[in-house]
Amino acid sequence: MNKAQILTMFVLLHLASIFAIFPERIISATSKGHWEPITILFLAELLVLWMYLKALSQFPGKTVVDICNESLGKWVTRLIVMPMLIFLYIELLLLMYFQSVEIKAVLLQRTPPAATSALFIILCFYAVWKGLNVMIRASIGLCILLMPFIFFSMMISIQNFRISYIFPIWDSGMSFFSHSDFYVCTVILAGFLFLGMIPSKQRLSFGKAAAAVGIIFVFALGSVYVPLLVFGQETVIHLQYPMLMASDTIDLEWVVFDWLPSFYVVASSALGVLKVSVLLWMLVALLHQLFMPKINRLWVLSVVCFSLYGISLLIPDINALNSYLYLNSFFCVYSVIGFPILVFLAAQWLRKKVNT
């Protein structure tokens, strides 16, 4: 794998979260000035991403686990990784359930939820079994195949825009900080965590990563403002899939474009499979390396997949996801902000130990 492939994976993992839950959560978090919380989230990502990449660049060929083990010891490393393991597990469960529900609602209405969930987890199991290198190389093909549909789905709704819906554009009180949905949105920042799990001597530079974050920022703005400018705040806040509904408002005569919502669901589901696979790979790698080194990784993967599938069947409906999302937001904030800071501090401590 090369830097271009890693950068492509970096972008696609962010987009997977953006098109899964991001628009409805930002719209719920504030009724005006939606660009403000989006900008703050991405500025926060740039800061922690710099710290994360700085720590990794100081020790080429080492992962974040290696750095923390050598600096803090295994038990402290296990302690600081534990909240991230909880985040990864809950996030996997939520993403898997959300994608299965979306596929069933648009594409497979008569298929039992158990069957769509089983298909989804089998695809992810196979991807993790093949390894991260295969997933990173596959991200290039997915980008070429999927991005045109996603981009076209966003741009096609422009003809239905009402610019007046963009106002008011400023939230002077920044009220979104007191809304739990804002912290749920921090899940989109988790797309950079996999960078610390690759034992590569050729690290991604911060400049290239920052440029990719800029591209992702544009898509994040679009995912919120496209449905907002089509429906308005009072209507869009009640929609479960605002981006999907916005693309469905266009009446085109060409049959292929009449299937645009289906193409959008297929594209977002493929991104969902990619993100679940990468997060699942991270979870299994951390469990195997820190807690179960003597157990075959395939067995760890199998147990995790079976447990995810079983628990997903116990979720009563998609409305129950809110309680899990709010619970996971605490672990998410730690994983995407607290953990990179701890890795950075551990790297500085280890560097001092090496130099003395």
TrEMBL record:
PANTHER family in UniProt: SPORE GERMINATION PROTEIN A2
Transmembrane domains' residue ranges: 38-55, 75-98, 110-129, 136-156, 176-198, 210-231, 263-286, 298-318, 324-347
BP GO annotations: spore germination
Protein name as annotated: Spore germination protein
Keyword Acyltransferase tagged: no
Keywords: Germination, Membrane, Transmembrane, Transmembrane helix, Transport
Compartment annotation: Membrane
Topological category with respect to the lipid bilayer: Multi-pass membrane protein
Domain of life the protein comes from: Bacteria
GO annotations of cellular component type: membrane
